[in-house]
Automatic annotation (TrEMBL):
PANTHER family: DUF4371 DOMAIN-CONTAINING PROTEIN (PTHR45749:SF21), PTHR45749
Top-rank lineage group of the source organism: Eukaryota
InterPro entries registered for this protein in UniProt: Znf_TTF
Protein's name according to its UniProt entry: TTF-type domain-containing protein
Residue ranges of every copy of the TTF-type domain listed in the record: 33-117
Length: 221
């Protein structure tokens, strides 16, 4: 599960009595501080600035999450010196610690949307590989039951006869999308891609089937 952290930035309309709490000098937080005004008049939301209505203090969300060597006022104690608020905010957001934390946040925000799609691709790949191996096991069992050898003298893709195992793989690939995809990939990439039909993998299939039969036989006795 991916959790998204967002700043708490309420306006006075959502607060009790429709106003921010005042300090002993009558000063209070202003919602306008949620934005940074640039020299050309444009404004940018300070997504790092989070206000706590219960504490009547502000914190830096970026520094809380990924900050290092950040002043305690912005990550633990909270800042509430409203008289110096404007200067304090600018001073904080230009510190190396804050800039580093904000860059890390931006990087994670750009990467996180990719994670679900990567997980879907991984699961699809696992399901495809399982289907391929299942069909290769069926071929191995079939050849074993008929006492037929798996390999041929030559097994290149250009050879007319490639051995019983490989020939059956090609035959079934005409009716199996999973095998067809695997065979096409092997023909295209050759040894650069993982092969489920190499000699080593054939040996593993034979050993696995043999071990399963032995265990089944022992349990039946």
């Amino acid at each position: 599960m991916i959790v998204e952290w967002v700043p708490c930035q309420p306006t006075s309309d959502f607060l009790p009595n429709k106003e921010f709490l005042k300090d002993k000098d009558g000063r209070h937080f202003h919602a306008g501080w949620y934005y940074r005004t640039h020299t050309d008049g444009t404004k940018t939301r300070r997504n790092w600035l989070t206000y706590s209505p219960s504490l009547n203090k502000i914190f830096c969300l970026d520094c809380i999450l990924l900050g290092r060597k950040t002043a305690k006022a912005w990550v633990k104690d909270g800042f509430s010196h409203w008289k110096n608020m404007g200067i304090a905010v600018i001073n904080h957001e230009t510190t190396n610690a804050h800039i580093e934390a904000s860059l890390k946040i931006k990087l994670r925000e750009s990467v996180l949307p990719l994670i679900p799609s990567l997980e879907v691709n991984r699961k699809s790949s696992v399901a495809l590989n399982r289907e391929i191996v299942k069909q290769l096991i069926d071929i191995t069992v079939f050849l074993g039951r008929h006492c037929l050898p798996l390999r041929g003298h030559r097994e290149r893709w250009t050879d007319q006869l490639k051995g019983n195992f490989k020939d059956l793989v090609l035959l079934l690939s005409e009716h199996s999308p999973a095998l067809a995809s695997h065979v096409s990939t092997l023909k295209l990439k050759g040894r650069k891609d993982t092969s489920f039909i190499s000699w080593d993998r054939q040996n593993l299939l034979i050993e696995s089937v043999s071990e399963y039969i032995s265990q089944f036989t022992n349990c039946s006795i």
